[in-house]
Amino acid sequence: MYQLLNGVRILDLTRLLPGGYASQLLADLGAEVLKVEEPGQGDYLRWMKPYLPGTKESALYWSLNRNKKSLKLNLKSTEGREALLRLLVKYDIVLEGFRPGVMDSLGLGYKDLSKINPAVILCSISGYGQTGPYSRRSGHDINYMAVSGALGLTGQAGGAPVPPAVQVADIGGGALMAVTGILSAYIARLRTGRGQYIDVSMLDGVVSWMAMLYAQQAATDSTMNRGEGILNGGEVCYGVYETMDGLYMSLGALEPKFWQAFCQAVERPELMGKQFDRDPDVLAEVERVFKSRTQKDWASFFRDKDVCCEPILEPSKVREHPQIKARRLFISLSHPQGETVESVGNPLKFPEEREFPDQAPPWFGEQTREVLREVGFTEEEIERLEHVNALNKESI
């Protein structure tokens, strides 16, 4: 982790992926992130399988919660809400992922928070945003991808849409937009002293990722079809090809120089002028080329050639790729019981900054007493809060 955001303090009220990914990125950059978790189960991700070997701890939770602290607080109680407002003295950025309207119903909406601290920054991540007819509709990544049009373009021509293996809307549309919004509001506050409310919609984020596609559609007045576009299988120069051993290679020779280099490398000069030909015979010839060698042979063959052709790796092979190793994308976290846990590390690199050891994810409520004491709670008040926590464990 780095210390670029040292002094930035964030209350993270979210659960599961979008908020957890966003706050971990900020924690990796040095922000002090305090997970505010409801009594009983806290972040649902804590209890989801698969577990770390020999434990009842979720590997998924460990993947999203390093470098954070954890506080148990029952926001459905008067005492819990009052405690959260007192925390705004120190933690003046709040990240939440409830359905629209929940924070207001708890008396913790932006107007409520800004009365206590006018400089507060509140960022809300939701599926469809805080406004519009779908604002309170439930949904998941696949639904936001569907409504955005992105899912409809994924898959083979004539076949069914294929859901992506990673949560594009949750991470790209939600988490990364939230980080951008929070840092933008923080920079603005340094100049103006005022807080901000940030409304992040995962659907909005995915639609924005499709800006070039929608610009293309508007300019040409053409329809976009699954498996027929430049980037989703419609061009011979940009696609997936099976190898002799039943594995696959990715070819991304979009620019003429890369396509020419590919044709020269595989000794098919007759294909040079057919980069964007949609002739089935051209496609069949390229398919025959790739089926003439194994994936390992092709990877070795293209290693020193400027072609944009790489093997499609199974996840179990990614860790051993030399570029992945060189970039240190997998890290080891020290488990309190003495074991180490492998995790994907921070993708942001700051070569001029000193790196500090990453901290393991917090136990459920691990820093509750410590944090409350820091903001002025007496031992009697802490005992009362813990009593309230034990009484009401209903989910928000």
From TrEMBL:
Family annotation (Gene3D superfamilies): Crotonobetainyl-coa:carnitine coa-transferase, domain 1, formyl-coa transferase, domain 3
Domain of life: Bacteria
GO molecular function, one term: catalytic activity
Source organism (scientific name): Desulfosporosinus metallidurans
Name used for this protein in its record: Alpha-methylacyl-CoA racemase
PANTHER family named among the record's database cross-references: ALPHA-METHYLACYL-COA RACEMASE, SUCCINYL-COA--D-CITRAMALATE COA-TRANSFERASE
Pfam families the UniProt entry points to: CoA_transf_3
SUPFAM superfamilies: CoA-transferase family III (CaiB/BaiF) (SSF89796)
InterPro entries according to UniProt: CoA-transferase_III, CoA-Trfase_fam_III, CoA-Trfase_III_dom3_sf, CoA-Trfase_III_dom_1_sf
